[in-house]
Model the fold of this input.
Amino acid sequence: SDAGVLKRIDYSLIKGGGGLIHLQTQNITSGVSSVDFTSGIDGTYNAYQLMISDLKTASDDVQIFIRTGDPTEGGFYSNNYGRASIGRDSAGSTEVASGNGGGNLGVNITIPNLGNASDECLNATAYIGKTTQTDTHKFIYGQAAYVQSNGGFNLSNFCGAQQNQVRAIDRIQVIASSGNIDRGNFTLFGVANS
Done:
């Protein structure tokens, strides 16, 4: 106010840009082989964010992967991912994982492996950009915090992409190297373009 006179301004002139647009949430409460997002990834946004919280697996000492797929294939790419990841645990040890092609199930977000004791879980945030671009690789990158199979706390930074394809993608999957995903909250957001 100015000496008791209320001034007004249009909200559109001061509102913040950016932000997350909620697209879909999946709450897993019993064993599933994978968590799939097959709708909503349509190029509306320049980037998408996947948030994972309280992921627990049926098996101990497993890797968690994120992978992509496209409408031409109708499924998910299950190999030939290039990836580079680094993990640092609460004991001060560092582990690096990198590679190209071969039997990689996807982009490994757990370096080293995830444990499944009653108090062990994983939380992660992953991004993927320009899903409709047809001339560049679709990188998945982000960070995971979890309890590894030896009981240590771990922080993993990860990135990677399917090497053989630059096609547009329309789906994302989270999968364990063996056994089921028993629990977790998985939320997909579009990152607002402005």
